[in-house]
TrEMBL record:
Entry keywords, A to Z: Signal
Record-linked Pfam families: Cytochrome_P460
InterPro entries linked: Cytochrome_P460, Cytochrome_P460_sp
Signal peptide (UniProt feature, chain positions): 1-25
Recorded superkingdom: Bacteria
Start and end residues of each Cytochrome P460 domain: 49-146
Protein name: Cytochrome P460 family protein
């Protein structure tokens, strides 16, 4: 019986690990962007009752203008307002070597993604996999959608 049950136990463990997100990158490396408000506001996206304010730093803007990949250490913060109220923060951060933390095919370059509630607490249900799958088609501009807005910053 042991021979028959061992694979079943292993399969169960694997399913549990997958459902817990353990097979994916540890996005807890991305901290709350305390300094986003002092960062450089480079754009606003409005869609229905959603308003998104976009922040990064001067080095990232200069890289975008030169058409180069973003430097290691870049943090981009999107502050999401719904009906005028602060709803959440979504953050992407790039560090040399972070790409190796995502299993092949699930990542987005050296970026990790994390979501924070309006009070700054991280959303534990969001490991960044969904974020990365939607940003991955932007690979030719280093996985960032709003590069054109960065280029138009003075
Ligand atoms: C369904 C596709 C989709 C998903 C899922 C998604 N994003 Fe985005 N993201 C976008 C688009 C499109 C933009 C450009 C702004 C806009 O049009 O709202 C964007 C913009 C951003 C930006 C500003 C930099 C940029 O790329 O322009 C950040 C930061 C960001 N997203 C983080 C996240 C995080 C963190 C998650 C997961 C919690 C996430 N995104 C999930 C589509 C997505």
């Amino acid at each position: 019986m042991t021979v028959l049950t061992a694979p079943a136990v292993l399969a169960g463990c694997l399913a549990a690990a997958l459902s817990a997100g353990a097979a994916f990158a540890d996005n807890s490396l991305v901290g709350f962007p305390e300094d986003h408000a002092e960062g450089l506001h480079y754009g606003t996206v409005e869609r229905g009752n959603i308003t998104e304010e976009l922040y990064t730093d001067r080095e990232a803007i200069e890289a975008a203008k030169r058409g180069e990949p973003f430097p290691s250490g870049t943090v981009i913060t999107l502050v999401d307002y719904r009906g005028g109220d602060l709803h959440r923060y979504v953050v992407m951060e790039k560090r040399d070597g972070w790409g190796a933390l995502s299993p092949a095919g699930t990542g987005a370059g050296d970026w990790l993604f994390r979501e924070f509630a309006a009070d700054g607490t991280p959303n534990p249900a969001e490991d960044g996999t969904r974020c990365m799958s939607c940003h991955r088609p932007q690979a030719r501009q280093d996985f960032v959608f709003t590069v054109d807005r960065m280029k138009s910053v003075e």
